[in-house]
Design brief:
With 808 residues, the chain is an alpha+beta fold. The radius of gyration is 27 Å and the shape is globular. The protein contains 13 helices and 53 strands. This is Alpha-glucosidase.
Length: 808
């Protein structure tokens, strides 16, 4: 079929009239004059719209082991509409496969656009007002190349989020993006249409109601949020099927939950992966790495992870070690382990073309590399020179690659960093017709490009899992929807620019909305030279990102916490230590996230969807649901405006001053102060700072309590396990519930252990009660012992305590 399926509602055009429909168990199939389609009910809130336009089979790379829970479905045919009712939605399908979705009160949520697609005209400077011929041609080419295009009605007051880590701002209204994984070495700017990742999923928010659309198509796709025309938004693809999911909220949190139900959540990581990580292109030879390792300990700056970038390899041959620079890597890894370090090594996909190099020989012998149309392995050039591309879309290749992970992890490597897997290539892009196995359904580069990094991460994850039986730590640069199940991501080669610090916030928030809960940027910036002030501000943001890694490029000035001056070093120490004290809080978020999909860095709209003032805020975020962070991301600023959302009061983390929500305040923020606010009623679990995770045996949990200033009640659930194995999946963990209540001058805290199945329990709980000095203090009815009642009232109770009463 070569016809262009543009769903724009011209009478009789494209799909044509409905001829026939049939209800099956979970789906309704509809035959139109010119094509067929299905409407598949995944849950009462998630509906898949599908038509096998160009390929017969459905071939999702993102949705694995889909569990359907459709609930009760009824189907009707009235006035030329197929009407599908779920327990949450009413879906109307009319001629030409026009879709309208309503809630059960009849409120319209999302509708196909009925007019023609009509992009704005780009006027230039020639006599006819046309743009230069070449650019006009390019635009036309893009339009022509899109074979499938869906237009949806765009209403005033709409906001769009998601699409992974696109540059620019949080709200994507008015912008146009392309999904084609790209390694562009230029400084990332707002006008970039592509990045390293392709996550074809977005959340739309209109009048306090949110829904999401996941366009599951791995070919090049384009998303236009009212840029080409303010009456509609669109998504389109160059090939593949019409295959998209509508995910109803009405809260954005429910949309993320639904999206991660389809594509998966990030599994709970090992606790140390949430510690501070130091990287550099490259720490080599061994002496330099050791110097860095010693410096952290000497300078009393916590650090868990050190990275080995490409120079640890022998001539950039993956899965080898340079014997000159690292003559005895096993011994070295052992020694660093003794100092509490975990070492992560980089692995690129490109395999050096080099007879006698075992990885190359094995790959060649078994036909594991992508080929040209004649079946000859395709060669391009990357770091090792001429190199071949393992065909990760082939199960057998993934298996081989998974096995190769043993070469690293059996020698003590703790995690693997996958880079260059867009895939990048130095001698021009891979041609469209490079052949891939695609798990037996042969295809070409156009379909695999965007999932190449996804499959590489999957193989890496599975290999490490089998080899270690611990939760794998994999970092990848390229991703597709669903990669979050296998890897953490970073936003690639940013630069030491204030604009990149500023932009990292919306990028990370949108990644979080797109299912990537475990993400971060290169703290301090990768390219260009960092400054003391920039690193000081960046580490304040890094302390709250899931992946907290300082990384910089070869030949850039040093960027370790101590690389500048004492003040910068002490600011680094302060925020890295704060990070370590907050580890149980962050770990709780990641544990929660495994079920809810809710990320660590959240745009304010997730928790405050009723407050429209927050919909476009780029420079503040929620860290979990108790902490709001409003970092300074501009050079020279020592104060900033902070918007505190409506719905509760807020307590300044540093001064303990209380503020009403729903207002802008001005916060003084000298270089060592990152504005942080705790939600009233907030309970924050804390550990003591340590040099690395596991250094100290944690027998006491601290609870930093921010009591309500009026009547109120809150609950915090804390999770505890061994921090590394999969035993928690068979039940080996503890859960503690802390309930905080205030009425009048009484505060009551209830502690309950709702699950005790993991052996190492806390011996005691230390409470810090901020902002209150009690007159009377009882632990299970007995007068308690006060530890400190200066500015912070604190006390410790044994792990058997159940109820604390404070009268003031
Ligand atoms: O072409 O391995 O984004 O983090 O340090 C550059 C060297 C290759 C790009 C990665 C960067 C890494 C660098 N890599």
């Amino acid at each position: 079929m070569n016809q262009k399926f543009q769903l724009k509602g011209l009478q009789g055009f494209m799909f044509g009239k409905i001829k026939f429909y049939e209800k099956k168990s979970n789906d309704v199939s509809i035959e139109f004059e010119n094509g067929r389609a299905s409407v598949d009910i995944i849950t009462p809130s998630i509906i898949n719209f599908f038509s096998p336009l160009y390929t017969e089979r459905r071939a999702s790379k993102a949705v694995e082991n889909l569990k359907r829970m459709p609930g009760k479905i009824t189907v009707d045919f009235i006035d030329g509409q197929v009407l599908v009712y779920t327990e949450k939605l009413k879906v109307s399908i009319t001629d030409n496969f026009m879709v309208d979705i309503f809630d059960l009160n009849g409120k319209r949520i999302c509708s196909d656009y009925r007019g023609e697609d009509k992009p704005f005209v780009r006027r230039g400077n020639d006599d006819d007002g046309n743009i230069a011929a070449e650019e006009g041609h390019q635009l036309e080419e893009e339009r022509k190349s899109q074979k499938i295009k869906i237009l949806k009605q765009l209403n005033p007051g709409s906001y769009f989020y998601g699409l992974g880590d696109r540059t620019g701002h949080l709200n994507k209204l008015g912008y146009h993006y392309k999904m084609w994984n790209t390694d562009n070495p230029n400084p990332h700017v707002e006008s970039f249409e592509t990045m390293y990742k392709s996550i074809p999923f977005f959340v739309a928010l209109e009048k306090k109601t949110a829904y999401g659309i996941f366009f599951d198509n791995s070919y090049e796709t384009v998303f236009d949020f009212g840029k080409e025309n303010s009456n509609y938004y669109s998504f389109s693809a160059v090939d593949g099927n019409l295959d998209y999911y509508f995910i109803y909220g009405p809260s954005a949190k429910e949309v993320i939950f639904g999206y991660t139900l389809l594509t998966g959540t990030t599994p709970l990581p090992q606790l140390w992966t949430l510690g501070y990580q130091q990287s550099r292109w490259s720490y080599a030879p061994e002496k330099r790495l050791q110097e860095i390792a010693n410096n952290f300990r000497k300078k009393d700056i916590p650090c868990d992870v050190l990275y080995l970038d490409i120079d640890y390899m022998d001539g950039y041959r993956v899965f080898t070690w340079d014997q000159q620079k690292f003559p005895n890597h096993e011994k070295m890894l052992d020694r660093l382990k003794g100092q509490g370090y975990k070492i992560v090594t980089i692995i690129d996909p490109g395999v050096k073309k080099d007879k006698g190099y075992s990885i190359y020989d094995q790959g060649l012998k078994n036909n594991y590399f992508a080929t040209d149309r004649d079946g000859i392995p395709y060669v391009n050039r990357v770091w090792p020179g001429k190199a071949l591309y393992p065909d990760f879309s082939n199960q057998a290749v993934r298996h081989w690659w998974a096995e190769n992970q043993k070469i690293l992890v059996n020698h003590g490597v703790a995690g693997v960093w996958n880079d260059m897997n867009e895939p990048a290539s130095f001698d021009g892009p891979l041609p469209d017709d490079v052949q891939f196995n695609n798990d037996g359904r042969l295809t070409d580069h156009r379909e695999i490009h965007n999932v190449y990094g996804h499959y590489m991460s999957k193989a890496t994850y599975e290999g490490i899992k089998t080899a270690t039986n611990k939760r794998p730590f994999v970092i990848t640069r390229a991703s597709y929807a669903g990669t979050q199940k296998y890897a953490t991501v970073w936003t690639g080669d940013n630069q030491s620019l204030w604009e990149h610090l500023r932009m990292s916030l919306p990028m990370l928030m949108n990644l979080g909305i797109s299912g990537f809960a475990f993400c971060g940027t290169d703290v301090g910036g990768f390219g260009f030279d960092c400054t003391p002030e920039l690193l000081s501000r960046w580490v304040q943001v890094g302390a709250f990102t899931a992946l907290f890694r300082n990384h910089s490029s070869a030949s850039m000035r040093d960027q370790e916490p101590w690389a500048f001056d004492e003040k910068t070093e002490s600011i680094n120490r302060k925020y890295i230590k704060l990070r370590y004290r907050l580890l149980p809080y962050f770990y709780d978020i990641m544990h929660d996230e495994e079920t809810t999909g809710l990320p660590m860095i959240r745009p304010l709209l997730l928790d405050y969807q009723n407050d429209e003032n927050v919909y476009g805020i780029n420079d503040e975020f929620m860290s979990g649901s108790n902490i709001l962070v409003a970092p300074v991301v501009e050079q020279g600023k020592t104060a900033r405006m902070v918007y505190l959302p409506k719905g509760n009061r807020w307590i300044d983390y540093w001064t303990k001053a209380v503020f009403d929500g729903g207002q802008y305040i001005v916060k003084n923020a000298p270089l060592d102060v990152c504005p942080i606010y705790v939600k009233e009623g907030g309970i924050i679990p804390m550990y003591p700072a340590q040099n690395y995770v596991g250094e100290k045996k944690i027998s006491q949990l601290t609870l930093d309590i921010y009591p309500f200033t009026g009547k109120g009640e809150s609950c915090y659930e804390h999770y505890q396990d061994d921090g590394e194995s999969f035993d928690y999946r068979s039940g080996s963990y503890n859960l503690y519930d802390f309930i905080l209540k205030r009425s009048g001058n009484l505060i009551e805290i209830n502690i309950s252990k709702t699950r005790e199945a993991y052996g190492e329990k806390y011996q005691s709980f230390k409470f810090i009660i901020n902002g209150i000095k009690p007159l009377e203090f009882l632990v299970d009815g007995q007068t308690g012992k006060i530890e400190n009642d200066d500015d912070q009232f604190s006390f410790t109770v044994s792990n058997t305590a159940k109820k604390i009463d404070l009268k003031f």
